[in-house]
Amino acid sequence: MIKKYCTILLLIIVYAKSTFAQEETANSILNNVYLKIQKANDYSASAHIKVDLPFLKMLPINAKVYFKKKDKFKVDSKSIAILPRQNFDQLTKMLADPTTFTAMVQAKDVIQNISVTIVSIIPLADTSDLILGRLWIDTKNDLVYKAQLTTKTNGTILTEYFYSSQSAYGLPDKIIFHSRHKKFKLPKSVTADINNTKPKEETKEKQGKITVVMSEYVINKGISDDVFK
């Protein structure tokens, strides 16, 4: 009988150690990604934005994107200001404080011919806007190639990242935001000429995407706070 209880206790200890090790590995993966992103104290870049949403049509536009630590972000354009900001900077904010979530390594996958590790993120507080996050991470280069964030306010948005010139800073050359919820929430600051809008009933359960091609990055050269006013 004693031998039986010792065996059960040993299994519990092994399971606990395995779970703890997995959490440590997941947290270290996320921390490495965060440290890479933090290399860019500020940056500006040109953005070519193509919107393909079921409830509006518009021509591709050019904009200027500005970022400065910790959370200053701005999109400047003569004709439009439409980008899902919650996914542009939410990832950085989420990874900044690992005490607010629990992370688990889920599986392996291949994206863009690159082996990635899938890490799931679950917030610890019910007050968090985030419900569930899943990140596809290249652990060799500490780059996020895909993110699926499900939030209370904006539903589920799947984001794909493509890297080239600025991968050392974790900054992508192309981003594709896939909308996967009933209603894509436009920012209040939208100022655009909409060529066509469809009735609301036709937009339910449909999918859309926003493609952003980034170029002409200027990194860590200093940006005045006046830019964000």
Attribute tags:
3 helices, 229 residues, 10-stranded antiparallel β-sheet, alpha+beta, single chain, outer membrane lipoprotein receptor (LolB), chain A, globular
Question: Care to give the gist of this entry?
Answer:
The chain has helices at residues 2-37, 85-88, 90-96; strands at residues 42-52, 56-57, 61-68, 72-76, 101-111, 114-123, 130-138, 143-151, 155-162, 174-179, 196-197, 208-219.
Overview of the molecule:
The protein is of the alpha+beta class and 229 residues long. The chain has a single domain, classed as Clam (outer membrane lipoprotein receptor (LolB), chain A). It has 3 helices and 12 strands; from the N terminus they run αββββααββββββββ. It has helices spanning 2-37, 85-88, 90-96, and strands spanning 42-52, 56-57, 61-68, 72-76, 101-111, 114-123, 130-138, 143-151, 155-162, 174-179, 196-197, 208-219. It is globular and about 45 Å long. 21% of the residues are buried.
